[in-house]
Amino acid sequence: MITTVVGSYPPLPRGPSSISEKLSNFFGVYDGYKPAIELAVQDQIKAGVDIISDGQVRDKMVEIFAKAIPGMAVEDNTPKIIGKILPSPISICADDLKFAIKVAERISKEYGSNQDKGLKDGIKGVKGIITGPSTLVYSSRMEGFYKNKENAIIDLACALKREVEYLEATGAIYIQIDEPFISTGMVDIQTAKKAIGIITKDLSVPKALHVCGDLTEVFDELLRFDVDVIDCEFTSIPKNMQILENVNLKGKKIGFGCLNNKTDEIESKEEVESLIKKAIDLVGKENLIIDPDCGMRLRSRDAAFAKLKVMVETVKNL
C-alpha cells in the first residue's frame, strides 16, 4: 500500500544563521520558510512516507490563495472576495513545490519529478496541493461583486485550473484538492462537482480530493467527481467507516486517514493496524492509500514525525 500525508506539517520558519543567509537577509531576499520546507521534506522521507508534500508551511490554506488571486484579498485577517476572480499571473505554490522536489531528490533520486508510474506500490514523489474553490468561497466574505457563491466558485475553479497546470509542469506526482467545506452541507454538491471537473480536466497526473469531516451524507456523490482518490478521515470520524461498507468505488481509491491529528498522543502500531485491517476487509488493500487524518500542522514536530513513523512501519508489516 502507498503511504502519503494529507499535506500540512508543523511550520518552523527560522531566521538567517549562515553568512550567506545573513547576506541574503541584508539584501531582502532571505526566505525563512525554505528551512521549514526542508525540515518537512526531510522528516517525511526519514519516516518512510512514499508521497510527500512541501509541508504547506508558508501560510494557512485559505489565506495563501486569497492573498494572491486577483479578485480576492485578506484584510484584517479576513479573506474576502472583492471583485471579479481571475487566474494569478504567476504560480502561488510552484516555487515551494520545486524547492521540495529539489530537497527530496538530494535525499533520494526516487523522489524526483515522476509522472509515469500512476498510483501503484513503489511510487515515490512530491504531490501538489491546492485549496478547493468551494472552501475558498465559503471561507471568505463576499463584498459586492458576485450575487451568489456558485458563480464565484466556478470563476475560482477556472483560476485554480491555471495553478494546477503550473504544479503539474513543475513535477507534481499527483494533484490534491482540499475541500473540507463539502462535508458541511453548506455547499451545493453539483456546483462543487462542476468546479472540480474544471480543475482536473486534461491533467495527465492522478487527482485526489480531500474532504474531512463526516462524509456519510455526501460520499456517494463524491464518487462521481472527476478524481482518482477520495481522501477522508477515519480516526477522528470513526462513523466514516460506514461509507466503506458494500460500496462500489467506481474505480477510485480511498485515502484512508488512520492517525488522529487532534492530539500529540502517538498511536500504537496495534491501534493503527486494527483500523487499517478493517478497511482492507471492506474495500481491499489495492484500493487504499494510507495517510493521517488532516491537521498535522497543529502538532509538534516530534509528534508529527513519530505518528508518520508508526503509520509507515505498520503498513510495511501488513
Shape: globular
Strand content: 5-15%
* CATH fold description: TIM Barrel
- Order of strands across the main sheet: 1-12-11-10-9-8-6
Provide key terms for this protein.
TIM Barrel; 12 strands; 318 residues; alpha/beta; seven-stranded parallel sheet
What do these coordinates show?
With 318 residues, the chain is an alpha/beta fold. It has a single domain (2-316), classed as TIM Barrel (Alpha-Beta Barrel). It has 10 helices and 12 strands. The chain has helices spanning 19-26, 33-47, 63-66, 94-107, 133-138, 149-170, 189-200, 219-222, 269-283, 301-316; strands at residues 2-3, 51-52, 72-75, 78-81, 125-126, 128-131, 141-142, 175-178, 207-210, 229-233, 253-257, 288-291. The longest helix has 22 residues, at 149-170.
Write the SSE topology.
Layout: E1 2-3, H1 19-26, H2 33-47, E2 51-52, H3 63-66, E3 72-75, E4 78-81, H4 94-107, E5 125-126, E6 128-131, H5 133-138, E7 141-142, H6 149-170, E8 175-178, H7 189-200, E9 207-210, H8 219-222, E10 229-233, E11 253-257, H9 269-283, E12 288-291, H10 301-316
Parallel strand pairs: 1-12, 2-5, 4-7, 6-8, 8-9, 9-10, 10-11, 11-12
Antiparallel strand pairs: 3-4
Summary?
The protein is an alpha/beta fold and 318 residues long.
